[in-house]
Specification:
alpha+beta, six-stranded antiparallel beta sheet, 34% strand, three-stranded antiparallel beta sheet, Biotin_lipoyl, lipoyl, single chain, OB fold (Dihydrolipoamide Acetyltransferase, E2P)
Length: 125
Amino acid sequence: MSQQLRFTAEHEWVTEPNQDGAVRVGITDYAQKALGDIVFVQLPDVGAKLTAGDAIGEVESTKSVSDIYAPISGTVTARNDKLEQEPEIVNASPFDDGWLFEIEPDDVADVAGLLDSEAYAKLTE
């Protein structure tokens, strides 16, 4: 992934806003390894209004079920529907093909307030 990423303490990554102002969200490599083989992903609907910190979906693996949290507040503009049939894509490519959804932030500054790669690396040591 060539874009600069931000991270959450819940092991999600967020891209910088694209030309339309939306950011893409996924789970980190650390998270997918901790979960193990992913067998089901529940994503928020396009148009859903999200509030930062709220549980808005789930990732189910052979080991456990883990909530997906909204990293920032905003409106869902796209979701990776391929994951309904092929949830294992998240394991194979968590930063590219395994992205979860896109959100248009209520405030773009919220993205900058997330963890940078250095801070996230310290969190996962």
